[in-house]
Every structure is written in structure tokens, then in C-alpha cells.
Amino acid sequence: HRPHKQSMSSGCQSGCLTCSEYNGCLSCKPRLFIFLERNGMKQTGVCLPSCPSGYYGTRSPDRNDCTKCRPECDSCFTSNFCTRCRPGFYLHQGKCLQTCPEGRVPSTAQRECVL
Amino acid sequence: CFLQHGNAGEGQSTPATCSPLCRCEDGGADCSGRGLTAVPTGLSAFTYYLDISMNNITELPANVFRNLPYLEELRLAGNDLSFIHPDALSGLHQLKVLMLQNNQLRTVPSAALRNLHSLQSLRLDANHITVVPEDSFEGLQQLRHLWLDDNSLTEVPIGPLRHQGNLQALTLALNRIVHIPDHAFANLTSLVVLHLHNNRIQEIGKNCFTGLENLETLDLNFNNLMTFPEAIQTLPKLKELGFHSNNIAVIPEGAFHKNPLLRAIHLYDNPLSFVGVTAFQNLSDLSSLMLRGASMMQEFPILTGTVKLESLTLTGTKISSIPNDLCDVLSLLRTLDLSYNHIQALPSLQGCVKLQEISLQHNQLQQIDRDTFHGLSALRILDLSQNQIKSIHRDGFLFLSGLTNLDLSQNALSGVPTAGLTALNQLKLSGNLQMKQPLSAQSLPKLRSISVPYAYQCCAFIGCDTLLSSTQEAARKRASGGEEDVERVSLVMHCSPSPGAFKPCDHLLGSWMIRL
């Protein structure tokens, strides 16, 4: 088990405030989002200005987190508001639907319900 | 894989190019985190995605993207942008996503944004914006998602938002907004999500949300609201409401009667003292209700019509009784926490067949009747500690075949019925000072941990020199066929307080009263 050596931002990746050799970023500089990259069993912290695709960011005074969108969303604004859907789903008012509501038709290219 | 150079004339697009400073792939160019101080040149004209985030670009000059007419997503987050030339973004007619968060902007670059007629998502969060010019979003008829959180706004940008009829999601969180005037969001008829958390909002107009007829999520958490936000009554489609961590003392009668679609209400960490009994009525989609510390509350809330409740927490009140029809209304209830109230008696909870956890500690219960927990075979955890329970009907636990944890500590019991407790794993009886006779583990086959009023009572469970008289020992052996007994006693892992030198198992001078 590798010793858990923590260092301040100088020896860390860009955007980190504190990091460890084994786990990458442990905390981020202000206003950046911390995201845990998975590599098999290992998790490595990285600090980003926005969360990766499939995740949304939640800002708070002391920490900014990335949280997974719903499974049918490619990207989202919050847990219950998608901004882009996965193939086979169509966006309508923040929801990824498999069929569009009355008056709208699915656009496969845009993955949206359109007029 | 990198974009391969195709030969013109084979139906392939013109030879694609990429800047040596970037990594290009399938029409996308990633030039992020390379210490760049200017937008790289030499990119393919067909680039539709360009990421220049996390560099050191301080300003965008005029026409810097004029060779990228097909750009749909432009990421400029995490630079040091403090100035964007009015013509910097000209020509980007197909741009849908623009990310400018984590920069040094002090105002919304309204001139530069004017002609982005296809823009749907605009991120301006984590800048230092104090001013939102009136014409900031004028040309953006397709705008759906706008991030203005983590800036220095002191008021809602009412004017600039006035024409954003297509806007669906807006965050103004983490700013310095103190007041929300009436009609602040009047024309945002498509808005579905509005985040205002972590501001300094003390007071909101009764009509400040008028016009938000499609709003589903409203987040007012972490503000300084002194009174209940009655303005929510103009939000017929509201599904999720948060106003936890404010200074609200009263939730009025009928508080949510105009919000029948509510699924979640987050209201903890408010100095609640009073909650109207009709506040949570007819919320047929509400799945969880958590009310802590409404110390002046004396009546159990009327929950008729709130039929999908699965978790009810109501603690720290002066409520002394529970309605008899509670389980007729809340048949889907899984967890019920009514601890730290003044409840003196329990109705039958028979109809709550899905109940898994009941917490009733710190009340004034006196007895448990035969049918109080009748039929609750799904119940796993039952906490009745810190009451004044003197008696439990012998069949009081008969139907609790799934119960694993039973806490009866700190009551006035002299005995405890064990019929039905075949799955019991943990039993707490400490503090029942009248319970002096030896205890038998006979009908508790799964018991692993028990706390008892007196150390000598542990002897029956952890195999010290037996306290039981020979007749009781023989009776137990006959009942269990002999071998099982030795194996079962050793399986009881933990009993407290465990007997010892000064807390012997044997009684002195023939009277179990005399013990150290």
C-alpha cells in the first residue's frame, strides 16, 4: 500500500489545491469542479472548469461537485433537467423521452422533439 | 484516432487541418490546458467543436473565429478573459454552446453575444459580473440554458431576461441578491428550473414568480428568508421546492395547496416553531416529508390525500397523539420517525404494511397493545426507548417476524414478550429497573446482542456458571432437544453489562437481591 503523501498545489496537477501521489487532486482551487476519474478500481481526482459529459456541476460556497446525470441524458443542467439526450431518446423541456408528446415529432439528428 | 488526410476527388472532404497546438478528431479540436495566450490558428474550417479551456487567454480580439463558420460548441472556460471584443464572435451563426465560465469578466459581453442567433446554452458562471446590461441577451432568441451563478449580482437581471421566452433553465445561485421584486420573471413562460440558492434573499414579493407557469424546480436554499415564500402559490407545476437553511419560523395553513404536483420539499435547518396542520394536505406525489423541531406544533398534520408518502419524519414537537386513520391514509409508508414528541398512546399501525423502520423514542408511551404492530411483517427496526412503557401485551410482537432490532431501553417494564421475535438480532432492555428476574433466550434463536438491566441477567446468554435452577435447565433442554442449547448460547456474541468479579452471576446468601 503506497504511503498517502499529500502535498499543496505546487506539486499537483493544474487546478488542484491539494493532491496525493496516488489519488491525484484531493481538493481544487476555488470555483473549479472536482471530478473522480475511474480507471478500473482506481479513482483519480481532477479539477475542471466544467464537469465532463454525462455529469452536471453543483456550485456551493466551499466546494463544487460533479454529479451524474440521469442514464438517458448525455448532458444535463441538474439531476432532473437534461440538455442533450442519448441516442434513442428525444429532448422535450428538459426530459429525455422515448416518444414525443402530441404535436411534436422526434428528430433523430438533434435527438429532440420538434414541431 | 486522428483525422486522416483524405485525397480530394475521392468524395472525401477537403484535406482536414489541425493546429500543432491541438489534438483534432472527428471535427473536434482539443487545445485545452496548453498554456496558450491566444486562440490557435490553422484549424479546419469544418471544426464544429473547439475546446480552448484552461489556458491563459486574457482577451478575444475581433473576428478571431471568422474561419470557423461551422462551430457549434466553443469552450473558453478557465482562462483569464477580461475583455471580449464586440466582433470577437462574429460569424458563429451555428454556435449552440458557449462556455465562458471561470474567467475574469465584470460584465456580460452583450455586444459580442448579439448575433449568436442559434445559441442555446450560455455559461457565464464563476466570473465577477456585477452588471448585466439591458440588451445582454437580446439577439439570443434560442437561448434555453443560462448560467449566471457564482458572480457578484446584487439583483435579479429583470430587464435583460424580459424577452427570454424560450429560456428553460436559469441559475442565479451564489450571488448577492437580497430581494426579488414582483414580476421579476414575468415572461419566462418556458422556464422549468430556477436556482437561487446561496444568495442573501430576505424578502420576496407575493407575485415575484408570476408568469412561471411551467416551473418545476425552485431552489431557494441557503438564503435569509424570514417568512414562508407564499409567492410559490403562482407555480401550478412545481415538483421540487427547496428552502432549507433559511430563517423561516412558520409554515402557514394550506401552504402548498396551489402546488399539487410537489414531489419533494426540502425545508430542514429552519427555526420552525409552527406548522399549519393543513400545510401538507393533498400532495398526492409527495414521497418524503421531514419536519424537525417545530417546537410549538401541537396537532398532528392532516395528511389526507398525501397518499404516496414513503418517509415521514416529525420530531421535536408537542404532538401528543397520532390520528387513528394514519395508516388508512399512508399505506405506502416505509419509515416513520415520530421521536422526541409527547405521544402518549399509539393507534394500530396495521394498515402500514410496508413499514420497515419505526422510531418512537423519547415520547410518553405507557403501554403497547395487541394490535399496535399487528401485521407489520416487513418491520425491521423498532425503537421504543426512553418512554414510560409499563406493559406490552404478550402478543404485542407476535407478527413482527422480520424484526431484527428492538430497543426498549429506559422504560418501566418488568418483563418483555418474545413471541414472534424469531428474527431478532439485537435487543436493548437496559434501564428497565423493575425487570429483575432472569431472562430466557429461549424464543430468540437469532439473538446476537442484548443489553439488560442487571449484569447477572447476562449469565443466561454468555454461558457463565449457570444461574438457572436445575428445573429450568432441564425444561430448556427438553424444549430444544439438548444439543442446540450448547451451540446457541455460544452464538450470542455480546451481552452487557457483562458479569464479573464485582457483578457475580450467583446470588449471595440465597437471595438474588444481594449482589454487589
In N-to-C order, the SSE pattern of chain A is: EEEEEEEEEEEEE
Shape of chain B: elongated
| Helix segment tally of chain A | 0
- The amount of beta strand of chain B, in percent, is 15-25%
The geometry of chain A reads as elongated
* Beta-strand content of chain A: over 45%
Q: List the uncertain runs of chain B.
A: 1-12, 465-470, 482-490
Number of helices of chain B: 6
> Which structural class do the helices and strands of chain A define?
mainly beta
Arithmetic mean of pLDDT of chain B: 90
Mean pLDDT of chain A: 90
Class derived from helix and strand content of chain B: mainly beta
Oligomeric state: heterodimer
Please give the largest β-sheet of chain B: 12 strands, mixed
Protein name (chain A): R-spondin-3
Family (chain A): Belongs to the R-spondin family.
Subcellular location (chain A): Secreted
In short:
Chain A is mainly β and 115 residues long. Chain A has strands spanning 6-8, 16-20, 24-28, 33-39, 42-48, 55-60, 63-68, 73-78, 81-85, 90-92, 95-97, 105-107, 112-114. The radius of gyration of chain A is 18 Å and the shape is elongated.
Topology of this protein?
The complex is a heterodimer of chains A (115) and B (516).
Chain A: E1 6-8, E2 16-20, E3 24-28, E4 33-39, E5 42-48, E6 55-60, E7 63-68, E8 73-78, E9 81-85, E10 90-92, E11 95-97, E12 105-107, E13 112-114
Antiparallel strand pairs in A: 1-2, 2-3, 4-5, 6-7, 8-9, 10-11, 12-13
Chain B: E1 23-25, E2 28-30, E3 49-51, E4 59-60, E5 73-75, E6 83-84, E7 97-99, H1 110-113, E8 121-123, E9 145-147, H2 158-161, E10 169-171, E11 179-180, E12 193-195, E13 203-204, E14 217-219, E15 240-242, E16 250-251, E17 264-266, E18 274-275, E19 288-292, E20 311-315, H3 326-329, E21 335-337, E22 357-359, E23 367-368, E24 381-383, E25 391-392, E26 405-407, E27 426-428, E28 449-451, H4 459-462, H5 470-480, H6 483-491, E29 494-496
Parallel strand pairs in B: 2-3, 3-5, 4-6, 5-7, 7-8, 8-9, 9-10, 10-12, 11-13, 12-14, 14-15, 15-17, 16-18, 19-20, 20-21, 21-22, 22-24, 23-25, 24-26, 26-27, 27-28, 28-29
Antiparallel strand pairs in B: 1-2
Subcellular location (chain A): Secreted
Family (chain A): Belongs to the R-spondin family.
Organism (chain A): Clupea harengus
